[in-house]
Amino acid sequence: MNTFLKISLGFVLGVVCTIGVLYIIAATQNTEENRLREEIRMKALKKLNQSFGDSDIDENGQRNIQSFELTTKKGIVKLHTYMSKDSVKILMGRPQSTNINNYGYNDEVHETWKYKGSNKYIDEFTIEFINGKLKSVSQYKE
């Protein structure tokens, strides 16, 4: 009986040690893979940042996104920076006036859309785009 307990205990300890070693190997291998993936991702984001020339991207590759809530005749419209012009047009409708400027030194196209609000004589909303992406929104209030 004593021999059976020794063999059983040895078997259980062997299985536990084997599982522990395999877990440690898997954890270190996974950590190395994640580190390499993160390094590749950061390099790609830095290249992308340099190619677009966006100054609003921080060192972690995250954009500074701001949101805007506009009270229009149709109700409350939520916009955020970097929205496309098409998305804004779907939410706000066609603008009453537009202004486009092409600055050659940065190859940036600045576009300004103006919308009338409840006062038909004053442009209540001014929406600015740079290269087709929403940059800022201003609302005139009396």
TrEMBL record:
Keyword Membrane: yes
Regions that span the bilayer: 7-26
Superkingdom assignment: Bacteria
The entry's keywords: Membrane, Signal, Transmembrane, Transmembrane helix
Protein name (Swiss-Prot/TrEMBL): Lipoprotein
Organism of origin: Niabella digestorum
